[in-house]
Amino acid sequence: MSTGQPLSRVVVMGRDVDLWLCVTAISRALGPAGVQVTAIALPTRLKPSDISATLPPLEAFHAKLGIKEPSLIRATAGSFSFGQNFVAGSGAGRTSNFFHAWGAYGAPIDGSAFFPCWLKATRYGLKLSYQDFCLTAVAAKNGRMLLPDEATSAFGRTDYGYHVQTMAYAGYLKSVAANLGVKIYEAHKGLVERDETGSIAALILDGSLRIEGQLFVDATGPDAILIGRSLDVPSDTWLPYFSADRFLAARAPAFTQTPPFAEIRIAGTGWTALHPNQAATGILHAYSSESLSAEAALASASAAASAKLADVSFHAVNACVRSRVWEGNCVAVGGSACVFDPIHDVDLHALQLGLVHLLSLFPVTAQFAAERAEYNRIMRRSYERIRDFQCAFYALAPFDGEFWRKARALSVPQALAHKIATFRACGQIAPMEDETFLPDSWQAIFIGLGVAPESWPPAIDRIPPNRFREEFHRTIEFIKGKVLEQPTHDGYLDSIGRSSLA
Amino acid sequence: MGEAIRDDNGSAPFRVVIVGGGTAGWMSAAGIRRRLETKDYSVTLIESDDIGTVGVGEATLPHIKIFNDMLGVDEAQFMRETRATFKLGIQFCDWDQPGDSYIHPFGAFGEPWGGVEFQHHWLRSQHEGHQRFPLEDFSYSVVAARNNAFEFPNEDSKSIRSTYSYAYHFDAGLYAAYLRSWAMERGVRRIEGQVCDVSRNPTTGDLTELTLKSGEHVAGDLFIDCSGFRSLLLGNVMGVAWQDWTHWLPCDRALAVPCKRVGALTPYTRSTARPAGWIWRIPLQHRTGNGYIFSSRFINDGEARDTLLSALDGAAQGEPRLLRFSPGRRELAWSGNCVAIGLASGFLEPLESTSIYLIQSAVTDLINLMPRRRSTGVDARLVNEFNRLNEMQYERIRDFLILHYTANRRMGEPLWDYARSMPLPDSLVHKLELFRSRAALPSHQYGLFARDSWLAVLDGQGIAARGYDRLADVFPLSVLEERLSEFRNRIQTNVDAMTSHDAFIANYAQALEITKPEAAVA
User: Whole-model pTM?
Assistant: First the structure.
């Protein structure tokens, strides 16, 4: 393997999904190349009621790990989620709701992107909303799945995420990891032993067992036990960009018919996300402690969910990014690297990104300064693009109420300010590297929040208006027909076998 | 949406005025005319028959075909009229050290196996294998180029013959003329004349009107500066500062001369390193374009002229013409209502044939971000976006060009010794370190250059990777070696069946008066 001994012993300390997805990914990809993975599992912090929402790219990542979708859905009481339905309740002062779908919106018209064509047509009186042209949005709002075929593939992406029971998902990943030969130690505490260069030499578990390694991964979540507490790498706060400093997590009963989407209900004092799956509905209520007491937040969340909540817990939101996510021979992934605001459910995706880039930059030998530097650059950019997408929701929120007035007054990161300005001017999304969210998503959120572009790229003025009409009509008919062909979400869940957790 | 979008149907068209009629001017005019409504935009181009165009950009990148296709240009006709030949890549001779040569192709090296990029597999075979084939054996376009063969890429993406694309060598003066008639037939107004005065709005500083030597006044809403190095509007009038890159790209002069065509038509550009710069060779149907790009710090014009003339493979057609330039770019390509395209916005030596690409990408971005209405004028937000994209394009190409210079083993030659030791932009340092450590190639979503281009030049310039991706070790070595040798044979067999470039041109796009002597070069 060229100069130097290959790096072959990786020790991952952490807990829950951060830990188990990490060891599964490294072991699956690099086990055959001789890399040995040891997992040091700290006690879980999960409650049976926790539900995680995931973003579409997880499906492909699972496939690489050999995880089969039906078995995962059964094991986790999982359901499919084709997007987020934003609903402004009374007190938020705005009734125009919108759906942010993960799938594609519209299809190009005579070689031009769909969005500007729709934008221009609305100027000339078109009453159909942007989401009416999104196949998966229409299917989901009708309680349907969207199983892709040749015609839908030609139309565009039909992406989806999942709502899984977090504890079951972590357990599922743990068994995959064990089958891959990952060595697992349970511990309450790990003490770091450093060598003369300051690198981590070993971890001492519960005061006795000593685990040596060449590369250590911190998957301990926001505690950041290795990279933060032991290596003292500070975090850069993102709090000035977000108006919620607390969130409440709880469980509500399952819906009789499982909606194939998340719902974000807006109130004057914050927002509440409903993540339905087969067994329950996860409730997450984000608010500001300056305006709401814990009791008031609970009342507000219960009202938003229209249900009695169980397993209620309160958490601080402390959005921040580790200033270096790879320090010495320690790599932070997931919550130890970056803590996000809860909007848009990005945590698992950020973990996935950290793992994907770690695999593609996995050290060849113990000389990995170039890889470390690149990893730090690329992760920082990737996290910031995700953060910007979250910030846009707060900066542009048109809702009434103290919470939203504060949100609109927050500072806006420069790259986001540029994106918003470009969009306002001409409806286009300024292309940037390392984006998680596609232009369709940016446009759906911007339009949904009521940002009205003042113009459009002039090239579409060459397309005759009757071409718009024809294509809009054709698209709407196509969507109607395709949606009717689809099984209901519940029907599909039945067909792959219901979860024993439900 | 309400009042946010206001349209002024029936109002006077937005007036675009282009100054300068070289490749940049006519590509801008043709692009705008093709993509935007005639009733919404008027296009006027001012050019002077007395001012020559630079036209060193005779070699192109494959993107040019997208531009031509957008215009609806008939390829064979365009090639006949511009005396064009096909280009599969660029050959670099003596760049790493004298005697070496490699080709940077418009095509892939090998293919990824098991989700692992090809260079890792190839490097593993270099480290551990029994047969050590050079990298270029795994590029269809390099093998075809070395055989002087050409054919169109196959459309079946499973075929090895689909793994490349192509560009052209053409006479840039004739290309501009071709676009000129294309644009003028479609309503672009051409004014022959020279700008002698520029009026500005005293409040906003925007340009309002140009006065020509003839006394004619040309008013406009947007002015495109295609005046070349002089940067008549953006540099001189708007006063946008120049960012100098001489410390990274030391060459600042060029001598250009065509010579008689001899021998077979090579389907590639050749660039040969010399003690104080490099010499280009661009094969056209009727003649061969040549030039010496050099640094005036390391050689004088007379010696450079002698070096160039002694390097020609056919009789020189006229006296070499001297061009002076500085590498770098204007800090903003668009300021107020003045946008510069082409050399007026910046200059990067034609080492990787990027001049026309930079024009094309600027024209595309400009059309996309063009103001829609005369009443509101230029939108500063869109200007910012244009400038951001333009800067990204320039910086990425810049790093790639610097790589050719800094990674050399031409010891004892002052220019090359300097290039080896000069401080590099951080962005390039990172790329080099990462390749050295693990053969990782830069990958961005936007702008030039793609991974395989970096691989060609990094390997060609002799930069060795210490390691490669561990995932490559998952394959049994014997399986890898079998695949490599099968892939290599497949290329060779297919290339052996190809037509020669000469025969292909003769059959497809032979210029009519190809035997006529060439008039003096523009």
Answer: 0.96
The interface pTM score, or ipTM, of the predicted complex is: 0.95
Residue B87 catalytic? Answer: yes
Which range among B164-178, B179-193, B507-521 shows the weakest confidence by mean pLDDT? B507-521
Question: Do residues B184 and B47 lie in contact, with contact meaning Cβ atoms separated by under 8 Å?
Answer: no
> In the prediction, which pLDDT does B292 show?
97
In A, which residues are within 8 Å of B369 by CB distance?
426, 428, 457
From chain B, pick out residues whose CB is under 8 angstroms from the CB of A455: 5, 371-373, 379
For residue A462, which residues of chain B lie inside 8 Å, CB to CB?
35-37
Half-sphere exposure in the Cβ direction for A433 (13 Å, CA) = 15
**Closest-CA residue in chain B for A35?**
B470
The catalytic position among B39, B65, B87, B431 is: B87
pLDDT at residue B28 greater than cutoff 50: yes
| Pair of tokens at residue B302 | 């007379």
- Domains annotated for chain A, with CATH where assigned, are 9-79+164-233+322-382 (3.50.50.60), 104-163+386-489 (no CATH)
For chain B positions 31-70, those within 8 Å of chain A (CB to CB) are 35-37, 40-41
Are B403 and B482 in the same domain? yes
Residues in Cβ contact with A4 at an 8 Å cutoff, skipping those fewer than 6 apart:
A364, A365, A366, A367, B466, B467
Domain that holds residue B470: 109-166+397-496
Compare CB distances from B367 to A418, A430, A459 and report the shortest one's residue.
Answer: A459
**How near does any CA of chain B get to the CA of A393, in Å?**
19
- Beta carbons of B212 and B194 less than 8 angstroms apart: yes
What CATH number is attached to the domain comprising B29?
A: 3.50.50.60
Look at residue B148 in the predicted model and tell me its pLDDT. 97
